[in-house]
Amino acid sequence: MKRFKKNNNILRITSSLMKKIIFYFVLPSILFACTPPPAPEPPKNLIEVGELEEIPELSAEDQQEDREWIEDFEQRKDKLKDLAVQDTKQKEIVVEQKEKVTASKVALKKEVDQILKNRAQEKAEEIFEKQIAGKVKKGSKISEEEIKTLIAKASKGELEVDELKDLLTKNLGMSEEEVEKIISEAKSKGEDIKKVLLAKVLEETTTLSEEEVKQVVEKVQEVASETTELLSKIGNAATAKEIRKILEDAGDISEEAITRIVEKNEEMLEEEKSFLRETMAKLYARLQRDRRLNVEEAFCSNIEGLLDHLLIEPTYFETNKYDIDTYVSAMNRNYQLMEPILNEFPDIMLQLEGNADLRGTNDYNKALAERRWRTPSRVLVTLYTVQADIPVTGVSRGEECQLERKEGESEEAWWIRNRRTDYMFKLR
């Protein structure tokens, strides 16, 4: 009992002591912590609000200058609208002129194509007489004359896979499954399907050995490829002299035919050069006008309303591609035609603008479009910068400058139009 009372006294003393500690030390600390700190003094160099309200009055001269600037701005807006309408009308006239040049080129191409096809026909007949005539199987379901026609069509590049498939199934009695198996095997080996099917037709209808069939098919393909190459070379030639040399080197073309083609080509080239010079002058006048009016160029140009495409057509690319192997000859031709014209405008430069369709990420399309202008620029830098001292620069538009999709246009066709590099003329 005494022990309990002793312990109880100790507890009372301890409790009393703890209360004093809390009151004198802990409570003031808590209160101090909850009290907000005093506000810092403002910097001595702080501008007083009253100073901001002190707005000086504009002089009569300043007020007049402002009125003139506003009036000029409104007038310029109206003028730009008027100029846009004028530009559109001018573009329509220029397009009509371009169509006349195009029509002349198409007519010339058609005549050249016919001359080259006649040449291929003669070579096909020679192949037939030397290697096939008299070697058609008795009872063949395809006559000798039909085979001769087949060889001629193949030599001119006019024979299609479907026609060969029909010959094998409908005339020679092969099943569609057999034909498709032949095609599948050819694809797996990377072989030309037309060549494989033509060889099969000759195997079924002639007494030629496997090696002889192979020789016939190779010669026919050689003539077809040569015809296509000649047509491309002539189309990309920038002078009548080049045309004559190409036709003479080809052989088996009469001097009369060569002279006729050369003369017509000279007329077409003069018409094209005149168009390019007049269009360049109109474009140059627009560039000077825009600079004079201080019109800033938008990130995405209104391609459909510009004249640049009428001077140099865009380069188009396959999906995810940026190579220009098939365009090099055309680019060289453009250079030869445009170089003397551009020399008449010494403050002109060429800007390449790479574009991509909407598929792919923004970063990917930006990088792809970058490659699409840099790749052709390597050719143009050599031509224009080194030889003619015409600056060539470029920019990647990525997917940001999509051409408007036309009514009824397929998605694929729309993508193709946006996978391109534009060749734009600028003032230095």
SSE series: HHHHHHHHHHHEHEHEHE
Any low-confidence stretches, pLDDT <50, length ≥5? Answer: 1-28, 30-34, 45-52
- The span between the termini is 111 Å
Q: Enumerate how many helices there are, as a single number.
A: 14
User: Which bin fits the share of residues in helices?
Assistant: 55-70%
What is the strand tally?
4
Gyration radius from CA atoms, angstroms: 40 Å
Provide a compact summary of the structure.
The chain has 14 helices and four strands. It is elongated, with a radius of gyration of 40 Å. Among the domains are: 111-262, no CATH class; 297-427, 60s Ribosomal Protein L30, Chain: A (2-Layer Sandwich), CATH 3.30.1330.
Would you mind describing this structure in some detail?
The protein has helices spanning 2-34, 49-52, 60-131, 144-155, 161-171, 176-188, 193-205, 210-236, 240-250, 255-292, 308-311, 328-342, 362-387, 411-418, and strands at 315-316, 348-355, 392-398, 420-427. The chain is built from 14 helices and four strands. By secondary structure, it is mainly alpha-helical. The model is unreliable at 1-28, 30-34 and 45-52 (pLDDT under 50).
Give the key terms.
mainly alpha; 428 residues; elongated; 60s Ribosomal Protein L30, Chain: A
